[in-house]
Amino acid sequence: MSQKDSFVKFEKVDKSYDGEILVVKDLNLDVPKGEFLTMLGPSGSGKTTVLMMLAGFETPTNGEIYLDGNPISSIPPNKRGIGMVFQNYALFPHMTVKENLAFPLEVRKMEQSEIDKKVSNALAMVELQDFGNRMPLQLSGGQQQRVALARSLVFEPRLVLMDEPLGALDKNLREQMQYEIKHIHEKIGITVVYVTHDQSEALTMSNRIAVFNDGKIQQISSPDVLYEKPNSSFVAQFIGENNQLRGKVKSISGENCIITTDSGDDVHALKININNNGDGSLVSLRPERVAINSSENFENNFEAKVKELIYLGDHIRSRVEVCGNDQFIVKIPNSYKGANLKEGATVKLSWKASDSRALDLN
Amino acid sequence: MSQVQTSTGPILTTDGIPLKVSLKKAERKNKIRAFLLVLPLLSFILITFLVPIGDMLSRSIDDRQINTVFPKTFEVYKKWDRQGLPSEEVYKTMFFEVKNSEGYDIGKASTRMNYSKSGWKSLLKKSKRKFKKIEEGPYKEKMISIDKKWGDPEYWKALGQMVDPTTMGYYLNAVDLKYDSNKNIVQQKENRRIYNKTWIKTFKVSILVTFFCLILGYPISYLLATLPLKYSNLLMICVLLPFWTSLLVRTVAWMVMLQQKGVLNNLLVMSNVLADENRMQLMYNQTAVVIVMTQILLPFMVLPLFSVMKTISPTYMRAALNLGASPLHAFYKVYMPNSIPGVSAGCLLVFIIAIGYYITPELVGGKDGQMVGNWIAYHLKTTLNWGLCASLGAILLAMMTVLYWAYNKIVGIENIKLG
Fold first, then answer.
1. What gap in Å lies between CA A120 and CA A106, rounded to an integer?
2. Does residue A66 belong to the interface with chain B, where contact is any CB pair within 8 Å?
3. What element of type H or E holds B187?
4. Which of B230, B316, B323, B343 to mutate to test the interface with A (most CBs of A within 10 A)?
5. Quick one: A33 exposed, middle or buried, by C-beta within 10 A (0-12, 13-18, 19+)?
6. In a shared domain, residues B150 and B220
7. What is the mean pLDDT of residues A5-25?
8. CB within 8 Å of A173: residues ≥ 6 apart
9. Could you give the CA distance from residue B135 to residue B138 in angstroms, rounded to a whole number?
10. Residue A46 backbone dihedrals phi, psi, to 5 degrees
11. Alpha carbons A160 and A244: distance in angstroms, whole number
């Protein structure tokens, strides 16, 4: 990505709070204009710190952040013109919804008529036209969330940051809001940097996802690539459900390799980030890529014992023991042909070598 | 669908009992339980707080005592037209009641009579002694011959203020007014007007103390509320430290600090800021009272402020900054309005405590720094004029009630928050 189309740019950014531990390590990140970038990671991985540095509430210990080509480390947060949605919305409790929305416009000394117009447009955008005179605490969580969203957009910032904005909502509302935010983003084409620890949220909304762990970006790519082609065992475990087979590298030939599991079975897999014969490796495999009692000819075929069946409606989740791993999950669609397994039965599992990825031991 | 209820009829339970009755029954147990829980405290407050206050309020208007000493005199006195001197009958009744009464009762009554017209006390004392020698009338002439005050109509008219079993005299006294001999309300003599000045002073000191507590307490509370826990705990201990020291010790320490040859003045002289002959008069005046009371009452401001500020999420300020407000504007528009409940609670608390304060003005106030509380103590212990004490106290109470009411009107009492 060239300097030109990088709207937000982190360059060699380090951050430490106590001079002993780096919470962000050598961060280099480019966000092009109009992108919805999600920073995903477990708590303590440094993703929120990155967001706070971008908003101006924390200063980088080293390195520089550029916004539209200009370094911003020395610009105070109130002069950055970046919108932000906070974790608990941070709506001012002593102001009505309208006053909350008018606040950023008033500090910019806009004409009253223009303020009124923009406020009502913003309310219309989040479909809360009738709630302008309510106090924030009189609104439901989802409504407060929308007001917070409207407030972060009403002054037409160049960039909007969102810090786990849906964390406090219940599941249904959260999913609904995910789509709403996604649609607003698509409609007004603003650049969004979004922080979450919820992987399904990240997969739903983002153009690209940066997976954080231990102060570093582990992998940054589009949701499908991240899910289907994780390049480290951390990412494979963190995104989606994942079966793991632990073993040692037996042989490597080009893109492929053979891993001998601890139980002595040879598994054919793609070579991702292993280098030498004899090194430890984790083979990662998505549950939905495993076939049961299939007549097709795949590279990997093993006998497995069914340990547990969990009925989940649209599919049956079965835990089987294979290659020494008794936590191996297979998802069986609840369709006319599957679904007559019994616990304790022996089945044949098979999968493609290209679906199993030999990763480092982490 | 005949069983569908009309909207006007009461809602019934499945057993056909009206819902409200059923609900009341179900909640009765809870109500009894709640009442039993508050009962010990309620009875304690009733006995140690409400009853004494009621007693005090009644004392401030009570004038029965004198009527029990001279019941017959006041009976005949009522018939008198209050012109010139009263008739022989009044003199006669008075004579026998003074002669036959216990010395103790006469003493008490004469104290009361002295409030209306000074001179009564010595007159009665003298008369009680001399009346023993008088056996028969005419009493009028003989009494006047013992002391010519008996022939002064002013003394007799003064008795008119005491005829009723209740009096407003103590209240008038508390605001520098009095009854004249014709029971008109007039101002006290110039040299006896002390209470209005004291009331103004008390208000002035209380307002100043509240103000200084607020401007000193607000920043420290802000710091306390925003610092990380390990530092804020230490700071909190520093704020509360004065609470752990005896009030008396602290006040005396201030005396050491502030007196003319005290630590502060010495330091200023030593560092050549002040010339030796220009030492500041910081002790035994209003300045001393304000300084010391501010220090003593500061925790009462800091604690409610702190506990309210603690609940103001720091993200409000961040959000305001993020939306483009300068730090000052964000503070003024977002932080301050949210801290108002703590400000009101703190100010009301400090003001209420300050207005009735006694010990500090007593010790460091000197003549200039006396407040209403000190006059109450003075009359309670020295002059034994409890009626005046009670009326001063009742006025204080009324003022606080008015203040509370005004506060509720303007700010709303539900905006008070102690945490």
1. 15
2. no
3. strand B185-187
4. B323
5. middle
6. no
7. 90
8. A141, A142
9. 10
10. 100, 0
11. 38
Tokens 């928050």 belong to B417
Q: What is the distance between the alpha carbons of residues B416 and B308, in angstroms, rounded to a whole number?
A: 9
Which residue of chain A is at minimal alpha-carbon distance from B328?
A: A78
Rg (CA), chain A: 24
Residue of B313, B316, B323 lying closest to A107 (CB–CB): B323
- The predicted complex's ipTM stands at 0.82
Distance CA B273, CA B263 (A): 14
| A49-63 confidence digits (pLDDT tens) | 999 999 999 999 999
Q: Measured between CB atoms, which of A81, A90, A151 is closest to B316?
A: A90
C-alpha triplet B40, B41, B43: angle, nearest 5°: 70
Which residue is associated with the tokens 């600090």? Answer: B257
- The number of C-alpha atoms within 13 Å of B185 and in the hemisphere containing its C-beta is 11
Q: Quick one: pLDDT band at residue B335, thresholds 50, 70, 90?
A: very high
Buried b (16+ CB within 10 A) or exposed e, A237-261: bbbbebbebbbebeebeeeebbbbb
Q: What is the pLDDT of residues A72-109, one digit of tens each?
A: 988 999 999 999 999 888 999 999 999 999 999 999 99
DSSP A233-258: HHHHHHSS--EEEEEEEEEEETTEEE
pTM summary value = 0.77
User: Which H or E run contains A84?
Assistant: strand A82-85
Mean pLDDT in residue range A245-252: 88
How far is residue B58 CA from its own chain's centroid? Answer: 15
Q: Which residue has the tokens 């109009």?
A: A34
Q: Read off the DSSP letter of residue B151.
A: G
Angle at the Cα of A85 from the Cα atoms of A84 and A89, rounded to 5 degrees: 140
Query: Which residues, including other chains, have CB under 8 Å from residue B132's CB and lie 6 or more apart?
Result: B99
Rg (CA), chain B: 31
| Of the residues A213, A233, A253, the one at which a domain ends | A233
The structural domain count of chain B equals 3
| Bridge partner list, B158 | none
* Lowest model confidence (mean pLDDT) among B14-18, B150-154, B217-221, B345-349: B14-18
Q: Are the beta carbons of A302 and A265 closer than 8 angstroms?
A: yes
Verify whether the Cβ–Cβ distance B322 to A155 is below 8 Å.
Answer: no
Tell me: the pLDDT tens digits for A192-240? Answer: 999 998 888 999 899 999 999 988 999 999 999 998 888 888 888 888 8
Give the count of domains, chain A. 2
**Per-residue pLDDT for B251 more than 80?**
yes
Strands A8-16 and A62-67: antiparallel
Claim to verify: residue A255 and residue A228 sit in the same structural domain: no
**Rounded to 5 degrees, what are φ and ψ at A211?**
-90, 120
Q: Measure the CA–CA gap between B205 and A256, rounded to whole angstroms.
A: 88
Q: Which amino acid, A248?
A: K
The pLDDT of B302-317, averaged and rounded, is: 90
Total residues found in chain A within this entry:
362
User: Which structural domain, as residue segments, surrounds residue A156?
Assistant: 8-233
Q: Does residue A262 form part of some domain? A: yes
Indicate whether A204 and A293 sit together in one domain. Answer: no
Look-up of token digits 């406020």:
A119
Whether residues A107 and B324 touch (CB distance < 8 A) is answered with yes
Bridge partners of B185?
B179
Do A278 and A206 have their domain in common?
Answer: no
For tokens 């305001």, the residue is B320
| Amino acid, single-letter form, for residue B224 | L
Helix (H) or strand (E) holding B309: helix B286-310
Q: Which residues of chain B are within 8 Å of residue A86 when distances are taken between CB atoms?
A: 315, 318-319
Structure tokens belonging to residue A55 = 């908003």
Expressed as residue numbers, the domain containing B102 is 64-192
Contact B320 A103 (CB under 8 A): yes
Give the minimum alpha-carbon distance from A26 to chain B in angstroms, rounded to a whole number.
Answer: 26
The reply to whether B355 and B245 lie within a common domain is yes
